[in-house]
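Progress note, project year one: complex with (2S)-2-hydroxybutanedioic acid.
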Amino acid sequence: MAAKEPLRVCVTGAAGQIGYSLLFQLAEGNVFGRDQPLILQLLDITPCLPALNGVVMELQDCALPLIRDVIGTADPLVAFKDIDAAFLVGAMPRREGMERKDLLAANVKIFKEQGDALDKVAKKTVKVLVVGNPANTNALICSKYAPSIPKENFSAMTRLDQNRAQAQVAAKLGVPNGSVRGCIIWGNHSSTQFPDVSHAEAEVDGRWVPVPEAVNDQQFLRGEFITTVQKRGAAIIAARKLSSAMSAAKAACDHMHDWFAGTPAGRFVSMAVFSDGSYKTPEGIMYSFPVTIENGQWKIVQGLAIDDFAREKMDATAKELCEEREEAIAACA
Ligand code: NAD
Ligand code: LMR
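Model obtained:
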């Protein structure tokens, strides 16, 4: 069989800590498949070019079979040229005591500039995943400044939160991580997010049962579980003095993998995507929903029951996203 044409994949912030964890997984074939050749187009800022050059050398030295070329640059027009997929990681991370939205003024301008560059040189079919915080609002701004690329091609990462929720439930039940599925993250990748297990299932003693039934501890699921997931990023910063990187890179790979490969029948994943008003959310914010994916197109899962507890939490995180949107638009003006 003839070899596939290489995909052009951009990673921004490629000299940073998430970049260092992400690039190897990507280059090995964990995201686009082990038969998919890749051209990696790596972006960082000029002062970090020497470090980026070191990363490029290391990628070369891995002698990985899928890598056709690795380009390191500080020019977004070079990094985004003809790309099929972008991991927009490059941005300032928060430090202890900050909320992610405290990064808004500093980071949102990066995404305005990068939206503009994507608009000029990326393929119109490019799939853009924003990881840099505040991820939802950065993705919104990036798309706003790339009007020739469909809005559906932009998303922000809440997969790390989904993975955290899954791992917390698995630990509570004493089952392997693979025995929990269907955890949903609603809203913002922030401390207002709503990790929701009311539609999740767990495999206990060989049988898949609803998580609320398996855990049988409503107080935990509506209390400690939610706050643990909401505050996990801060807990990692407090412990490492650096924000999460290995788990963030893994989640970015999971997100992009599923966007390209699709979700298995009957399963969904959480992604922050443009709200179309589903579940009475304000239209036009980047809100995390459960989605199914087929042929590279995501669709918001419809018809899930939302009780009063969930409604209140979903509205609170939507309100924060609307406020962030106003602030970001003002910062870019
Ligand atoms: P880091 O400081 O280690 O690396 C960031 C890199 O981005 C640096 O090399 C920096 O030079 C580069 N950079 C800055 N401005 C840039 C620009 N305009 N263009 C290209 N590159 C640029 O940070 P990190 O730990 O890798 O985190 C990166 C971002 O990801 C942060 O904003 C962090 O908060 C966010 N993050 C998000 C999630 C999530 O779940 N969405 C999880 C973890 C971290
Ligand atoms: C995380 O969730 O770990 C990241 O968004 C980093 C942070 O600032 O919390």
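The mean pLDDT is 97.
The first strand starts at residue 7 and ends at 12.
No further modelling is planned for this target in the current period.
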